[in-house]
User: Fold these one by one.
Assistant:
Number 1:
Amino acid sequence: MRITSVDAFALRFEPPRGADLASARASGSSVLSAETDSYGDYYIHRGEWTSIYSNRFETTVVRIETDGGVVGWGEAQSPVSPRTSRTIVEDLLRPVLIGADPFDVEALWQRGFGAMRERGHPTGFYVDALGGVDVALLDIVGKTVGKPVHKLVGGRFRDKVALYAGLSGTDPEKVAAQAREHVGYGYRALKLHLRGPRERILKIVAATRAVVGPDVQLMVDVHTTLDVPGAVLLGRGLEEHDVFWLESPVAPEDIKGQSEIARALDMAVCVGEWSRTRFEMREAFERRAGDFYNFDIGRTGITEGKKIASLADTYGIRVTPHIGAGGILSIAASIHFSAAIPNFLIMEHSHGSHAEKMKICSVAPEPVDGAFLLDDRPGIGVEIDEDAVRRYAVA
Ligand SMILES: [Mg+2]
């Protein structure tokens, strides 16, 4: 079996989230609120030196076809600038892949990774692109042998993948209302994306805890907006409300600071969504910069993700896959990964945007009572609607 074509599509979903954006701004949501600086289609939270976000849903999907006509799909998660990942796939990875055997999954990742390592590209968009290719190859292998991907990469450690849902906002009552709604959908774990003054964060958490009661797990993600003393102070306040983990307290590069926060607090600290390889994570694991690691399979791919999980396991660290703005193929890849590792904890999910992410497929996993149930569909288990992919692809 040989690879005969490799294509990538930079997707930007239209119609844009303009209507949602307006209503979110009106309702005071902090993710899409007036507290942002706008840069064309993108925005950054005002007064922060953190992530740029898109007003729309953007990502890059990879399509690989073999001489036998088997087509595999993967996603190089690209919440902004999907054309960058597309170019990497088309200009750099396509020539390496054409004519290769798609079963050489790990060897092909290594070939691609090694190709740009000496030039200083061991992470970022380049590795995202490699990850999308990795998932597309595993999709081909699974479809060829008639097995779901998790059966190819370790097997089924569990029958369902537990989820937590994400919420955000600046108004305690509105966030609490969203939390109640999500508990109604069956979620038993919720993560609050909160920014701004500590007192406001604690008020929102208190209001949410009051509504959901003691049995729903709450997590708080502050998106690297704090310093070490600020994170410890906030964490002590969150512990009063039985918050399960504090996520991304300080800058990704500050491994020592993360470690100090994790040691100072009784509650768990979760870090790592920015990391893509075991090489990047080794020092953080050694220094125990967090209790849980939330690396993202839409960035690592499944093959490297398995290696990272294995390394984490040697340090007794549990893995809680990040999804963020990942699309349906990122979600599907994360489900298979989560099924196939011993040290899985819980996976992220965005209940509100799932229908939107389903726009490019006819069949895909859908959550039931706060979990994805595993099935035996071969490959990654997503049936892509190619017409939709081409419709949403940008030039
Ligand atoms: Mg996060």
Number 2:
Amino acid sequence: MAIDTKIWTGPGRPAVFLDRDGTINEEVKYLGSPHQLRLIPGAAEAIARLNQTGIPVIVVTNQSGIAHGYYTEDDIQDIHNYLDKLLADHGASINAYYYCPHHPEAIVKKYMVDCECRKPRIGMLSAAAAQENVSLSQAYLIGDKRSDLRAALNAGARGILVRTGYGRQTEEELLREAEATGAALVTNIVDDLAAAVDQILASTQQSQPQSVQPPKFVSTYRFHRPATDQRYPHQ
Ligand SMILES: [Mg+2]
Ligand SMILES: [Zn+2]
């Protein structure tokens, strides 16, 4: 699939991008079968809470295991179907899945690409932004690796590091670097996906007060349009 890497700049809606391994499900190196899939405690419930707000939840996952020949794109489909089933048991769903099957040193030749979709590059994010009408500047990306944080930064989105998966290791590296350079650690770090969603929902409620209702009828829209600064007092 050709991916348009231009950042979507038009008006759009917010979204929550989720890394998969180590963020939604327990990290096992190169997860290639549904049998290996275990949800991180609280992850499904957290996704359900996002679903209730109507904010799109989009998975963006590097799957170089395909490039290395450990598993195939069909296996990824099976895994995502199974993940959907596990999430559905908790009333949760993913709006869209994006995965990068590539690697510059792939064993499987057709995946040997220095592509634009492998995080920290933003190909998956910008493709999703265009297809799901998402504004990246209003989006969050939650993940357990530096490549997730960098992808968020590169896309102009807000990154959140979770301490699940490789997250604690990532946090320690960031702390060591901050100490070495004397720079402040500005990364937003929380325990897990549930905590990240708490934070996102708290800030969303703050910036969009429930008391201001959108106009009910399209025909009267232009007469009743609330002032932008009334709806988004912090922007
Ligand atoms: Mg991960
Ligand atoms: Zn790729």
